[in-house]
Amino acid sequence: MNQSLTYLLSTGVFVGGLAVVAFFLMRYRDRLQMKFGMQGAVRQIVQIAPQARLALVEIDGMKVLCGLGRDGITALEIVSRTPEQPS
Predict the structure, then answer these.
(1) In Å, how far from its chain's centre is CA 10?
(2) Do 73 and 47 share a structural domain?
(3) What is the pLDDT at residue 38?
(4) Do 46 and 35 contact (CB within 8 A), yes or no?
(5) What digits encode the pLDDT tens for the residues 30-81?
(6) More confident call, 61 vs 20
(7) Are 55 and 45 in contact (CB under 8 A)?
(8) Kind and range of the H or E element at 31?
(9) How many domains, the chain?
(10) What DSSP letter does each residue of 41-79 carry, written as one string?
């Protein structure tokens, strides 16, 4: 009886700790991305079927067209950065 109580208490503390870490990561996600230099944004998502979508993601000036489906995420097309045109 004492071992099962210890097991349940340990599991509860572990799951609670994971929940707290997840909460803070979600809350401070933008600050962490800026601090570590990850610049990215989802520009547009289009639903093409009941369980399939296309997403246009921009990461550090590169545009990536991704397919989102039941099987996961697939990069369909990667467009490299365009060089600066002189004005």
Answers:
(1) 29
(2) yes
(3) 57
(4) no
(5) 676 666 665 667 788 888 888 899 988 887 778 888 888 888 888 888 877 6
(6) 20
(7) yes
(8) helix 29-35
(9) 2
(10) EEEEEEEEETTEEEEEEEETTEEEEEEEETTEEEEEEEE
What would the two tokens of residue 41 be? Answer: 């944004």
Q: Do 87 and 53 share a structural domain?
A: yes
| Tens digits of residue pLDDT in 48-59 | 888 899 988 887
HSE-CB for 30 with a 13 A CA cutoff = 2
Judged by DSSP in three states, 6 sits in helix
| Residue 32 and residue 50 in one domain | no
Query: For residue 13, what are the domain limits?
Result: 1-38
Q: Tell which wins on pLDDT, 84 or 75.
A: 75
